[in-house]
Give the backbone structure.
Amino acid sequence: MRKIWVLVLIIGTSFVPYARAGQEARPEETAPRHRVLNLSLFYPVSLNRSKHDTANLSLSLLYGHLGSVRGLDLSLGVAALERSLEGVQLAGLIAAAGESMKGGQMAGLLCVAGDRGEGIQMAGLGSVGGEEFSGLQAAGLFAVAGERLKGAQFSGLFGVAGESTQGLQVSGLFSVAGDQLDGIQIAGLFNVAGEDSRALQVAGVMNVTGGTCRGLQIGLFNVAGRLTGVQIGLVNAAEEIEGLPIGLVNLTRKEDRRIQMAAWAGSVSLFNAGVKIWAKRFYSVLYAGTVNLTQDEHDCLAYGFQYGYAFPLRASGGGGGRKRIDVDVGYLYFDNSTLFRRLKGTPDRHVYSVRGALAVELSKQLSLVGGVGLGYRVNYGTSFSGGSLFPLVFVGLELF
């Protein structure tokens, strides 16, 4: 048995020199070559034998793959680079630079700059800058900058910058800046800035800033963690308000929010009742009224809102409740004929108003409010210049 093991050992060691010789005989990977002109049908059916070769002018029919191009990379199909592009890359389907792009990329479907992009990307479907992109991204569906965008994104569906945006995002559906936004966001549905924004956000539905909004939000719904700028919308919400929320409903944290019932008699619509919503000193009133005194019609229904700000008055010596001055602007629509068919001869009417009122707190749950103002009335179907000014007066109560 010992003789058998000795024989196996002798045979095995005898093949070691041949094995080493075989390893040494393996051809080393060829060093990258540079060509002024490189031609490719479908890599590796091309002049370049390595994906690390470089060229000044690369022409490929279906698929070209090089290390870098400094000049022009042109393909009817796919143009791919392992490392960098300095120049122009044009492809019928996909244009890709694995590490960096400095210049321009245009493709029928997709443009990709793996790490950094500086220049212009234009694609029929998507444009992607892996980390940082400085310049212009334009795509039919989506534009993405993995971390930071400095420049502009235009896309049919959505635009995304993973961390920060300094510039312009315009999208058909939504635009997103993961953290910081400093510029402009415009979208058909919604805009998002993950943390702070010093920007203009305009959306068909909603704008969101997770942290502090120092700019302007315009949409149906606007949300900010802390507002030091301006919100203009149907509903505005901010945890802390130091700026200007302009909307039918403005919401803030519980300690700065109050909802009251309001009822008053006035010289425009005789009887009125609605809800008064407070966000710190800003307030909005949503209400309905009846008895149209401006047209001497009893059978009508009016819908209106007021938006204003309250100025507290310094308490004088002695007792008595707190007082304040309310100043607001508003709009009231008199619906004379929709619900009351017999009034078809009386045109509907728009009334715009500016009011000032003194509010006296009778108790914590009840306040007396009275004031005067100036109104402008225009019949429905009449030009705005065809209206007339008139004085108005009102007095009422606020509950809770």
In short: Confidence is low (pLDDT under 50) at residues 1-27. The chain is about 5% helix and 65% strand. Residues 141-251 form one domain. Residues 81 and 97 are 5 Å apart (CA to CA).
